[in-house]
Specification:
TIM Barrel; 10 helices; alpha/beta
Length: 271
């Protein structure tokens, strides 16, 4: 829908599952970021550590070296929202100093004891994402008694912890963590029941672009770049279910799809 924000992905990692290494230099990442803005991205998410299944961690200094110059270069060219995709407080500090206005944390501020306090001091928006386990092992055999209830309750608890540390409620976003310690059935169920998360009263970020669940449904699309159709279907469903932002690789196509969806829903409301 037209009022849903589109977050474009700017990976500056050599090993991300979809586009690892393509935008590893500051110049290449800046060019890619500006192209995404031209295609309609309202938010740019810069990440310097892959969180794909099986990924190895990256050192703090290296992650800062990858992300901070890119964020500074984007900020010099663009006054829109810039997010840093990191679990490390020191990386978030460096990113905000360079011009970022959002911290997108796959650990929901749980990686370090001072994560929530740092987020409060930075005063930036914070995305709290659910992940079962950690990237290297999260897809080994994820199990839940009730995936919707467990994800909802975990994120509600993390939001309360963030606010207790001083993060303003209006700064908090929630993300169900599609593909992060979930089977295909878990991912589909969370998407179909996204309202359960939205009912907590925080804006929701939905991120399923090019993920492996598309291959699992389709039976083909072993290459992440061949998952455009599935990515669009998931982004549209996330928006229809109430997500306020979708995180995507294919910005131009997603913006177009959301505009058409919005026009259709507008026409239906006039009948």
């Amino acid at each position: 829908m037209s009022d849903v924000l589109v977050m474009g992905i700017v990976n500056v990692t050599p090993d991300s599952f979809s586009d690892g290494g393509r935008w590893a230099s500051t110049e290449a990442a800046l060019d890619h970021a500006m192209r995404l803005v031209g295609e309609g991205a309202q938010v740019l998410d810069v990440g310097g550590e892959s969180t794909r299944p099986g990924a190895d961690p990256v050192g703090e200094a290296e992650e800062i070296e990858r992300t901070a110059p890119v964020i500074a270069a984007i900020r010099a060219r663009w006054d829109g929202r810039i997010s840093v995709d990191t679990m490390k407080p020191a990386v978030a500090r460096a990113a905000v100093a360079a011009g970022a206005t959002m911290w997108n944390d796959v650990t929901a501020l749980g990686h370090a004891p001072d994560s929530a306090a740092v987020a409060a001091k930075l005063g930036c928006d914070v995305v709290l994402m659910h992940m079962k386990g950690e990237p290297r092992t999260m897809q080994a055999d994820p199990r839940y008694d009730d995936v919707v209830a467990e994800v909802r309750d975990h994120l509600a608890g993390r939001a309360e912890a963030a606010m207790a540390a001083g993060v303003a409620r209006e700064k908090i976003w929630l993300d169900p963590g599609i593909g992060f310690g979930k089977t295909l059935d878990h991912n589909l169920t969370l998407t179909a029941r996204l309202e359960s998360l939205i009912d907590l009263g925080f804006p929701v970020l939905y991120a399923a672009s090019r993920k492996r669940m598309i291959q699992a449904v389709d039976g083909t699309a072993t290459d992440a770049g061949d998952r455009l159709g599935g990515s669009l279907a998931l982004a549209l469903e996330g928006a229809r279910r109430g997500a306020r932002m979708v995180r995507v690789h294919d910005v131009r196509e997603t913006v177009q799809a959301l505009k058409v969806q919005g026009a259709l829903l507008g026409a239906a409301s006039r009948e």
